[in-house]
């Protein structure tokens, strides 16, 4: 087990939550974008996390008994997917993007959902900062052994 | 007479365990939003037992150094899945409050053991310096 493994785990989570925060900000910023590059309204994006698995070499050395227990890699962003739910239809014939019946397709972004997700991401970020600080204090404590 | 460093070795193993556990709990917290992730923990007795056994022997006899050693048998008792926790809709079992509590406990335990270790070392220092 490496000295800074726990720090790497926590910082991988900080990165992942930051990406999530970026995507949420992008969703909120585009909540009223009725036309993107492909001509469609903006589609809400969702971040999918997965556990970062250890490398093949680590699993092998663990199996032949060189490591005491498996090591961990933290978390990573697996994909940023688009939410397939339907667009919001709003009747507004004066809008330049309205169809022949006068309806405009607005993005499937729900501001309230985004705000809740944003709070969740920031709380997770804080929890990982706490874990990081505790690891730091443990490391400094080991330097004081024997003093 | 007991070995001079027996106690120090024991503290070392306890610190090892807490260090590893900190890593596992950090991993649980990092994966609090990962779908399908299962919270893990470390079994203290199994860990201590195994690290004590490793130095005292009970090795499998091998006729070639490239034979697989005894310790290669997968020992799942060390890492345990935390089954007490409720699964969320995304099949994730991390309970963030419990994990933060465990993290704090573990760090206090680590501080305690390392303090004990320092005192043990200081005792020997006193002996070496003839009490001066």
UniProtKB/TrEMBL annotation, chain A:
The keyword Nucleus does not apply. Residues 100-140 form the Flagellar basal-body/hook protein C-terminal domain. One of its GO terms (biological process) is bacterial-type flagellum-dependent swarming motility. InterPro entries: Flag_bb_rod_N (IPR001444), Flg_bb/hook_C_dom (IPR010930), FlgB (IPR006300), FlgC (IPR006299). It is found in: Bacterial flagellum basal body. Residues 7-34 form the Flagellar basal body rod protein N-terminal domain. Keywords: Bacterial flagellum, Cell projection, Cilium, Flagellum. PANTHER family: FLAGELLAR BASAL-BODY ROD PROTEIN FLGC (PTHR30435:SF2), FLAGELLAR PROTEIN (PTHR30435). The basal body constitutes a major portion of the flagellar organelle and consists of four rings (L,P,S, and M) mounted on a central rod. The rod consists of about 26 subunits of FlgG in the distal portion, and FlgB, FlgC and FlgF are thought to build up the proximal portion of the rod with about 6 subunits each. The basal body constitutes a major portion of the flagellar organelle and consists of a number of rings mounted on a central rod. This is Flagellar basal body rod protein FlgB. It comes from Caldicellulosiruptor hydrothermalis (strain DSM 18901 / VKM B-2411 / 108).
From TrEMBL, chain B:
GO terms for cellular component: bacterial-type flagellum basal body, rod. Residues 22-38 form the Flagellar basal body rod protein N-terminal domain. Pfam families: Flg_bb_rod (PF00460). It is found in: Bacterial flagellum basal body. GO terms for biological process: bacterial-type flagellum-dependent swarming motility. Belongs to the flagella basal body rod proteins family. The basal body constitutes a major portion of the flagellar organelle and consists of a number of rings mounted on a central rod. Structural component of flagellum, the bacterial motility apparatus. Part of the rod structure of flagellar basal body. This is Flagellar basal body rod protein FlgB. It comes from Caldicellulosiruptor hydrothermalis (strain DSM 18901 / VKM B-2411 / 108). The lineage of its organism: Bacteria, Bacillati, Bacillota, Bacillota incertae sedis, Caldicellulosiruptorales.
